[in-house]
Amino acid sequence: MSGQEIIIKSADGEEFMGYQAMPPSGQGPGVVVIQEIFGVNQVMRDLTDWVASEGFVALCPDLFWRQEPGIQITDQSEEEWARAFELFQGFDLEKGVQDLDSTIETLRGAEGCSGKVGTVGFCLGGRLAYLTSTRTKADAAVGYYGVYLTEHLDESFRCPLMLHIAGEDEFMPKEGREQVHAALDGNPSVTLHDYPGQGHAFARIGGEHYDGESAHLANGRSIEFLKANLG
Question: Which structural domains are found in the chain, ordered by start?
Fold first, then answer.
């Protein structure tokens, strides 16, 4: 399966790219796939294709376009990591959420989309997926090993949220993970899954901490959750 690049219009009237993949049936609920700090690279495109193969109209927007459009780097060299962190540090969170809101509404009205739209994000995208559940009209959200979630624990949820939490996440210390649980355990809008012993990005194929068993478990939970809430 291969998708295509489409144009998304931002709230301030500019345009940015999104990689879109269609389900085998040509129609279904929408899912916005939210990038890591490496741009809309092959990993994200493959993930978008996978989401589409599960029956969703999937769209992965280029959220670094305001800094440099078309970023596609990997996690395989120190130089690329340095560039990725530079982009992460220069990222405007508020504008990023605004661009995701534009992406969600673009997908909602796209041909083949049922009108229901969820999100699924990884790393930086995990944080942003969380924020789509509190700040946009997304119908469901899934976050994998989101960073800086403790900054948003006082926000109110507008849709169901599932979080996959790495038990040994170097970017989310134990204290932070405990704060997330203390704030969200028992919240009927939130489902938390812990993956003991797993490092950050345990679901990134080819990554240093990739764990096939945990990734398979998390991915299965994500698809089931999205189908239940977007059907």
Answer: 4-230 (3.40.50.1820)
